[in-house]
């Protein structure tokens, strides 16, 4: 097995109840009596985390919003000796800022990030079987059980770190979903669904979901105009061709003109897997490359796209003509989709197609929680199928460094792992519920060889890999790894080597706290060592890309959320006018300097818009990339237009829509952070207007559930255009590969649709136009009619995802009990529904409204019937 570790198996069958995940199996109890007593304590300590109120009567001074929660510890009857108890420490994760703590016997010490330590108050002793309720007050709001972190752990007086068994994550064998049994269900909508007074958010209860899906069904009732194919993204032009269907199960005979087989090998493999293998005497499949290709069916703005292609299916003959190899691969992937849907048989059709954007990206964060080469390769196949062509790979952040750089082995030997090591000489301290064990599945990294193999796999699928190590903020893994390197070399007496890559300045007394609560996550841009470090990392990266035959073309600096560091740095003060440090200017200098380093290497610099916006465009190379992650109904239009007007490659990365680590529904049981969106469902993603950002206010409500509105204070200039759209999966709450699939699919398909295909209901951008919710400036009826068609296409795609083993989210049904009869419907048509009275074991199929005399559970099943959604409770009277 390579040195990188997978975050979890894609699916774990567990016939004997729930399957423990999240840490390595606990070690066998040591023979020493004290050690055995502490192991029993960790195995039998009772833990319960419960949310109490998201809008309590009062908050601590200076805090406008807060929430209250309770952490209940139930002690075992068998406790370690009293003489040992004072030396015990209990560590837990709390991902928002703790601003209030109340306990009878415990005191809290904040460590860093989300890590906290509980210890006994002076003179306090533990009583066997006692119960201790700790009241926690946090800053902001706590709307989802996803904010609860697993893997609390006890550190004994002897220094052993033992995971508390009750806090381990488990996998439900019915659904394959990770759950945290010690986190109490959030059921009180009145106290938990909303924050401050303007918040109008409502949970998507079963009854509300039923009404929502019923309205979609009604919108499609007038008759959904059939498409000749179910290819996704929707082709720009498609039409049926008269004649009998074509059977490809007997194979295809390939003829290539103007291209070799190598650039098409991966796409041909997809076609073979769909049921059309290459065989003599098969249906003729001719692929021709014509760089001067003109397609009369395409509008002018698409006719110049490099990926333009046409497919014509005739009688035992399929002709593909494309302008480039990228276009030919796109055509083959489209053909493979339709072949798989028809089980080897396709109708006759003509398609002319090209993408609306050249940049169609997927961002995957493997830094917070590691996901290895196997899962990434699975995602590459799905990206190719749905014509996404940029993999933005987030390899370094505060919580981990995930790519081997041979010249700096500490980056992965230490920064690739989290465990309980207060000195951080072996690993980083645990964050985000990683637990104390270095062998935990959230740890690991890509070796040089694994990364090169990944680059080759991406190239074969016509996908560019854009690596990213966030700097100068979000750099704790790098900073602490280089500090460990410094200490090691200093112990050997080699001061020169020790200081060569040191990223902090000993005399810097600046005190800061990042948005993720770190006080040591920012490297110092005023130190020469910082740029030696950057150049060495880039040397290693570029060497790997060259070895893979996929030269590094774009590098993402990050440059976001840099805390107020450096104000007391002697090096920065020495360089600052009058000795007064402007933190924004220091950060901008770093961006400008690194962008210049990259330009000299022939690499385009990219970064998040908040950091890039501080840089002086005149000091940046032409054509840098900015990912616009401002809020859509706030300043995203102004930020995006400013970047486009400056000639930057502007990528729409608005978190309200494109952050697929956010919940798919406003439900406390749906996983994901929710700071930008309480619920991002399929229709919301499908409704994105990426080229006319202000117009989204016509169809969207804001974060608090209020009708949207948007002005256009900084209009886009004539000729200024956006370069593309990117989906994002940050991994703070994504601890398994199965959860990666759940969060991305099927929503990624809706995002791919918007990145490739412009819908007819999207109004053209008109500079200076303002929009308000439901103002009619976006044709709502046309949008819903298009959505009705898309629901059918998405339903067809679920079978393909099942075949590939993608553990996509199965949306729970909408359901209600009206007049004593259970009624249910589904987000996508054709999904099977099951129900049972609460307390019974056997599930029953639902085909039509059924009379019930008690509360029931309802769930949906995957297209292949092998997996179930989480079950929802439908009550006969209220609460549904």
What features would you describe in this structure?
- Keywords: Hydrolase, Signal.
- The protein has 880 residues and is of the alpha/beta class.
- It has three domains: 24-167, Sandwich (Immunoglobulin-like); 237-353, Chitobiase/beta-hexosaminidase domain 2-like (Chitobiase, domain 2, 2-Layer Sandwich), CATH 3.30.379.10; 359-779, Alpha-Beta Barrel (TIM Barrel), CATH 3.20.20.
- 25% of the residues lie in helices and 21% in strands.
- Strands 21-22-24-25-26-27-28-30 form an eight-stranded parallel β-barrel, surrounded by six helices. A six-stranded mixed β-sheet has the order 13-20-17-18-16-15, covered by helices on one side.
- The relative contact order is 0.10.
Helix and strand topology:
Elements: E1 19-21, H1 33-44, E2 46-53, E3 66-74, H2 82-85, E4 89-93, E5 98-102, E6 106-112, E7 115-120, E8 131-139, E9 153-155, E10 161-163, E11 169-171, E12 178-179, H3 189-192, H4 206-220, E13 237-240, E14 246-247, E15 252-257, H5 265-273, E16 283-289, E17 309-314, E18 317-322, H6 325-341, E19 345-346, E20 349-353, E21 359-365, H7 373-385, E22 390-397, E23 400-401, H8 410-413, H9 448-460, E24 464-471, H10 476-491, H11 495-500, H12 528-548, E25 554-558, H13 570-575, H14 583-600, E26 604-608, H15 609-612, E27 625-628, H16 636-645, E28 649-652, H17 655-658, H18 682-686, E29 709-710, E30 724-729, H19 737-744, H20 747-756, E31 771-772, H21 780-803, E32 814-818, E33 821-825, E34 833-837, E35 844-846, E36 850-851, E37 856-860, E38 872-874
Parallel strand pairs: 15-16, 16-18, 21-22, 21-30, 22-24, 24-25, 25-26, 26-27, 27-28, 28-30
Antiparallel strand pairs: 1-11, 2-3, 3-8, 4-7, 4-9, 5-8, 6-7, 9-10, 11-12, 13-20, 14-19, 17-18, 17-20, 22-23, 29-31, 32-33, 33-36, 34-35, 34-37, 37-38
Helix pairs in contact: 4-21, 5-6, 7-9, 9-12
């Amino acid at each position: 097995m390579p040195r990188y570790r997978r975050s979890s198996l894609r699916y774990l069958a567990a016939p004997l109840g729930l399957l423990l995940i999240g840490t390595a199996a606990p070690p066998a109890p040591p023979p020493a009596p004290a050690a055995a007593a502490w192991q029993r304590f960790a195995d039998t300590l009772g833990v319960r985390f419960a949310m109490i109120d998201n809008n309590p009567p009062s908050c601590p001074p200076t805090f406008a919003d807060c929430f209250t929660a309770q952490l209940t510890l139930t002690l075992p009857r068998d406790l370690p000796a009293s003489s040992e108890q004072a030396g015990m420490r209990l560590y837990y994760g709390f991902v928002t800022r703790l601003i209030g703590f109340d306990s009878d016997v415990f005191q809290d010490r904040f460590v860093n990030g989300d890590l906290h330590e509980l210890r006994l108050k002076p003179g306090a002793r533990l009583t066997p079987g006692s119960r201790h309720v700790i009241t926690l007050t946090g800053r902001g709001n706590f709307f989802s059980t996803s904010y609860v972190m697993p893997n609390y752990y006890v550190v004994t007086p002897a220094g052993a770190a033992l995971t508390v068994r009750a806090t381990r994550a488990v996998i439900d064998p019915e659904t394959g979903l990770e759950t945290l049994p010690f986190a109490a269900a959030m059921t009180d909508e009145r106290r938990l669904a909303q924050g401050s007074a303007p918040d109008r958010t409502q949970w998507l209860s079963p009854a509300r979901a039923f009404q929502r899906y019923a309205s979609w069904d009604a919108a499609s009732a007038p008759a959904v105009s059939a498409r000749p194919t179910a290819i996704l993204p929707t082709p720009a032009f498609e039409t049926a061709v008269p004649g009998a269907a074509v059977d490809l199960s007997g194979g295809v005979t390939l003829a290539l003109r103007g291209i070799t087989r190598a650039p098409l090998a991966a796409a041909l493999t997809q076609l073979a897997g769909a049921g059309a293998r290459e065989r003599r005497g098969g249906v003729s499949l001719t692929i021709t490359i014509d760089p001067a290709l003109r397609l009369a069916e395409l509008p002018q703005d698409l006719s110049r796209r490099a990926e333009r292609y046409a497919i014509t299916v005739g009688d035992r003959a399929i002709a593909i003509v494309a302008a480039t190899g990228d276009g030919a691969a796109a055509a083959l992937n489209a053909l493979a989709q339709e072949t798989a849907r028809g089980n080897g048989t396709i109708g006759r059709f003509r398609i002319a197609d090209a993408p609306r954007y050249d940049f169609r990206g997927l961002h995957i964060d493997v830094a917070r929680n590691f996901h290895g080469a196997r899962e990434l390769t699975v995602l590459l196949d799905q990206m190719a199928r749905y014509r996404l062509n940029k993999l933005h790979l987030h390899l370094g952040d505060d919580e981990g460094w995930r790519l081997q750089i041979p010249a700096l082995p500490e980056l992965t030997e230490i920064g690739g792992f989290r465990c309980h090591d207060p000195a951080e000489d072996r690993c980083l301290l645990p964050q985000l519920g990683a637990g104390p064990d270095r062998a935990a599945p959230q740890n690991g990294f890509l070796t040089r060889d694994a990364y090169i193999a990944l680059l080759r796999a991406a190239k074969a699928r016509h996908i560019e890999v854009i690596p990213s190590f966030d700097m100068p903020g979000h750099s704790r893994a790098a900073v602490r790894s280089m500090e460990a390197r410094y200490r090691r070399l200093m112990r050997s007496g080699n001061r020169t080597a020790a200081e060569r890559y040191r990223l902090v300045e000993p005399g810097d007394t600046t005190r800061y706290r990042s948005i993720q609560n770190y006080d040591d996550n920012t490297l110092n841009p005023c130190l020469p060592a910082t740029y030696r470090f950057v150049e060495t990392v880039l040397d290693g990266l570029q060497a790997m890309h060259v070895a893979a035959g996929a030269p590094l073309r774009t590098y993402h600096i990050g440059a976001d959320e840099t805390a107020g560091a450096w104000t007391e740095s002697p090096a920065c003060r020495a360089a600052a006018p009058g000795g007064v440090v402007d933190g924004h200017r220091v950060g901008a200098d770093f961006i400008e300097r690194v962008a210049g380093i990259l330009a000299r290497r022939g690499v385009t610099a990219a970064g998040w818009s908040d950091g890039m916006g501080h840089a002086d465009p005149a000091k940046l190379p032409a054509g840098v990339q900015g990912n616009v992650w401002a809020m859509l109904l706030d300043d995203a239009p102004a930020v995006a237009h400013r970047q486009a007007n400056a000639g930057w490659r502007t990528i729409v990365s608005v978190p309200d829509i494109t952050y697929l680590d956010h919940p798919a529904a406003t439900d406390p049981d749906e996983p994901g952070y929710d700071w930008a969106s309480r619920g991002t469902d399929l229709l919301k993603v499908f409704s994105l207007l990426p080229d006319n950002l202000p117009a989204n206010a016509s169809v969207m409500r804001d974060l608090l559930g209020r009708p949207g509105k948007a002005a256009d204070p900084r209009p886009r200039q004539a000729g200024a255009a956006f370069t593309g759209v990117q989906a994002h999966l940050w991994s703070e709450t994504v601890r398994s590969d199965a959860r990666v699939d759940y969060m991305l699919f099927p929503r990624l398909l809706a995002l791919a649709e918007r990145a490739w295909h412009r819908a007819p209901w999207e109004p053209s951008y008109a500079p200076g136009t303002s929009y308000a919710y439901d103002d009619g400036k976006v044709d709502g009826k046309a949008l819903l009619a298009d959505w009705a068609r898309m629901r059918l296409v998405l339903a067809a795609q679920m079978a393909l995802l099942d075949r590939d083993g993608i553990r996509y989210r199965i949306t729970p049904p909408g359901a209600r009990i009206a007049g004593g009869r259970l009624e249910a419907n589904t987000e996508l048509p054709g999904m099977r529904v099951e129900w049972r009275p609460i307390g019974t074991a056997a599930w029953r199929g639902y085909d039509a409204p059924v009379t019930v005399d008690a509360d029931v559970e309802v769930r949906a099943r995957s297209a292949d019937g092998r997996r179930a959604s989480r079950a929802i409770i439908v009550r006969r009277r209220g609460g549904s």
